[in-house]
Amino acid sequence: MARAVVSMTEGDGPDRRAEELARGSAMLDEVETSALGALAKLPPFRPVVISLMRLFDRENVSNDEIVRLIESDTTLTAELLAVVNSPLFPVPGAVTSPLQAVNLLGHETTKSLAAALGMRCMVQGAPRTPVVRRFWVHTVASATIALDFARLFQLNPHQVYIGAILHDLGRLGLLAAHPEEYTVLALTSHESADAILAAEQAEFGMTHCRAGALLAGAWSLPDPVRQVADQHHQNGSDQGVVALVQLCCRLADDLEFQAILRRDIKKPVETIKALAPTHLHELLTSRLEDVSAAIIRAIETLDF
User: Fold this and answer.
1) What's the confidence (pLDDT) of residue 33?
2) What pLDDT does residue 279 have?
3) Residue 23 confidence (pLDDT)
4) Among 58, 146, 217, 252, which has the minimal tally of Cβ within 10 Å of its Cβ?
């Protein structure tokens, strides 16, 4: 599928910025394709967040450009300031403007936070049911673990965080497309993750992994996001970000932050030994207590 990239350059005026955002919004409105089918019932990812993610991929992007995009979405502006002023970010004094927030957080953290707020907006748009809340808690738990572990794996923590915060996008897609049927599936305890995927394939003709990859492609999310959505239930990826999200998704389950209940969860230490490089076993295990506390703080801050 062709991608619509929203770009902004130094000297772009308000009319140009409005035109580019409108083009991005129109692209997102045209997600009803033969491949997506009923998945298109899920409201599109916010155009301003996609624009921000693309903007951050450029070299020499200025804070003013970032702030102009953030301020074009009043809801994102309000949410960004609320989270920056929360205990999750112990910054000195009150942060009262997007420019101040970007200066304090830096580009990478702002990008990660924008992705998290964009995903939370989608969750907020879904019915506020226990199933949706479980999906969101699992997502936040997986992303928090990924952010903590990333540097031990010598990966960009913010790239990993964004992949993890969006890895279960397909669950929301299937829930939007088949609300009653997917709710029944999600409230059932399954033998294993493979059993969940098999049940999805049998009932809906695709797994939530395939659904997430289709949605990420249709909305022009970055390639690593599509790969993570598609492959996070596989094992042994040779791509670092995908492999770490695979580990973090399973650890979130083992720490009892499951999206859908399954009976084959392990002790976190066992999962680390099975999926992480041998030289990191001790370091990762030593982080589990701190990671669990960080998950609770993140859930409290990003709750919906």
Assistant:
1) 54
2) 95
3) 47
4) 58
Residue 183 within any structural domain of the chain: yes
- Residues in Cβ contact with 55 at an 8 Å cutoff, skipping those fewer than 6 apart: 6, 7, 8, 61, 65, 66, 69
**Which residue from 149, 150, 143, 156 is spatially nearest to 107, judged by alpha carbons?**
156
Say if CB 115 and CB 107 are below 8 A apart: no
Q: What is the pLDDT of residue 86?
A: 87
Whole-number Å distance between alpha carbons of 190 and 184? 12
**The pLDDT of residue 62:** 87
Q: Which SS3 state, helix, strand or coil, does residue 262 take? A: strand
d(CA 63, CA 68): 9
**What per-residue confidence (pLDDT) applies to 38?**
87
For residue 303, what are the β-bridge partners?
none
Q: Block means of pLDDT (10 residues each) for the chain, length 304 residues?
A: 30 47 45 69 85 79 88 90 87 88 89 90 84 95 96 93 95 94 95 96 96 91 91 82 95 96 94 94 96 94 82
The total number of structural domains that make up the chain: 1
| Residue 8 main-chain phi, psi, to 5 deg | -140, 140
> How far is 21 from 25, CA to CA, in rounded Å?
6
Cα separation, 176 vs 35, in Å, equals 16
- Domain residues for 152? 14-302
CATH number at residue 93: 1.10.3210.10
Asked whether 101 and 77 are in contact (CB, 8 A), the reply is no
Looking at the domain assignment, is residue 3 inside a domain? Answer: no
The residue behind tokens 């062709």 is 2
Decide if 4 is inside a domain. no
Longest alpha-carbon distance in the chain? 57
Quickly count: other Cβ atoms within 10 Å of residue 80's Cβ. 22
Question: What span, in angstroms and rounded, lies between the C-alpha atoms of 13 and 138?
Answer: 41
